[in-house]
Amino acid sequence: MASTAGKVIKCRAAVSWEAGKPLVMEEVEVAPPQAMEVRLKILYTSLCHTDVYFWEAKGQTPVFPRIFGHEAGGIVESVGEGVTELAPGDHVLPIFTGECRDCAHCKSEESNMCDLLRINTDRGVMIHDGKSRFSIKGKPIYHFLGTSTFSEYTVVHVGCVAKINPLAPLDKVCVVSCGISTGFGATVNVAKPPKGSTVAIFGLGAVGLAAAEGARASGASRIIGVDVNPKRFEAAKNFGCTEFVNPMDYDKPPQEVIAEMTNGGVDRSVECTGNINAMISAFECVHDGWGVAVLVGVPHKEAEFKTHPMNFLNERTLKGTFFGNYKPRSDIPSVVEKYMNKELELEKFITHSVPFSEINKAFDLMLKGEGLRCIIRMEG
Ligand SMILES: NC(=O)c1ccc[n+]([C@@H]2O[C@H](COP(=O)([O-])OP(=O)(O)OC[C@H]3O[C@@H](n4cnc5c(N)ncnc54)[C@H](O)[C@@H]3O)[C@@H](O)[C@H]2O)c1
Ligand SMILES: [Zn+2]
Ligand SMILES: [Zn+2]
């Protein structure tokens, strides 16, 4: 056990005090892990659009002050009571949705929606005692997605931690902890495009490009990338996209443009934007008779999906998924192995890197739609 085990750790964290305001580097106190919890030393974290939505808190429940961050890699510092499968020194990825291994969902081969630990964007405390493990001068700072990785140390439920190969470089595989697994899994585990099929990907950020990569790995012959930001198109060619549609270039909806390009619609579509209109287009652009659309983007709280029921009667299928349908503890170690075996390239998703002290730059880049993933180095 580390000499810090059982003690409060004081460390740096980037605290979000108010919606949309730059994060502030603070010294926080991180309490020791309680039953079924582990305390992690975060080494690398990156920014996903889900952090930005809840930081902006437009159309989402505001919970402040809060420590954001959920895509990360680190090392176990100490473990709480009852934790047997993780030990200090283990290399891990914290995951925003968990796997208790006991509930009906965890026992089902089809679901990753654990009853106990499924994603909860509004909860700011630990499940064990309803309290936060972070404080500043005795005042609680709330958690985000049960991970709060914008801190040098964080406390996470053991069911939300994937133990990975210690040889895997954490500055690369940290992106597997959310975006890449989400997009890749949405295609290979949920949309399941047959070989030779045509796939449309809405939103060409890291999640969408990982979805495109999944389509290529599945043997899709045409991959149509759809984005309102044309800066995304050039890079998307490296992820298998063969054609592009910018909805801003047309005065008809993208589903009509795609239907014309594909003789009636694509075989599969994967939506990775969070925009409700893109979700509707992603569904309506699939071919009748067999088309399957998969929603991945996190919508506005009040968003409503509106489409004519005839679209379903005409044998189109609509699905959605969190975390690419992967079970975090059981499946994620093997996604990391795919990288180790050179079956999955991660470097091309990583376009920027900043020291922790400059974390607000990562937010600026995402807001400007520049780059894909920005790695935040905790030692800096
Ligand atoms: N379901 C899950 O488990 C899960 C996990 C991670 C992220 N997400 C969500 O996935 C989405 C993508 O995340 P990201 O980190 O890649 O974000 P990103 O901002 O890097 O990429 C989103 C892309 O969508 C494009 N876009 C926005 N509106 C559009 C529209 N109407 N039509 C076409 N393109 C449009 C943007 O220009 C951008 O390029 C977000 O909504 C995020 O919250 C979901
Ligand atoms: Zn994410
Ligand atoms: Zn469970």
From TrEMBL:
The keyword Transferase does not apply. It catalyses: a secondary alcohol + NAD(+) = a ketone + NADH + H(+); a primary alcohol + NAD(+) = an aldehyde + NADH + H(+). Residues 36-164 form the Alcohol dehydrogenase-like N-terminal domain. Gene3D superfamilies: Medium-chain alcohol dehydrogenases, catalytic domain, NAD(P)-binding Rossmann-like Domain. Residues 206-337 form the Alcohol dehydrogenase-like C-terminal domain. Its main location: cytoplasm. GO terms for biological process: formaldehyde catabolic process. Keywords: Cytoplasm, Metal-binding, NAD, Oxidoreductase, Zinc. Its EC number is 1.1.1.1. CDD domains: alcohol_DH_plants. GO terms for molecular function: alcohol dehydrogenase (NAD+) activity; S-(hydroxymethyl)glutathione dehydrogenase [NAD(P)+] activity; zinc ion binding. One of its GO terms (cellular component) is cytosol. PANTHER family: ALCOHOL DEHYDROGENASE, ALCOHOL DEHYDROGENASE 1. Belongs to the zinc-containing alcohol dehydrogenase family. Homodimer. This is Alcohol dehydrogenase 1. It comes from Phoenix dactylifera. The gene is LOC103711045.
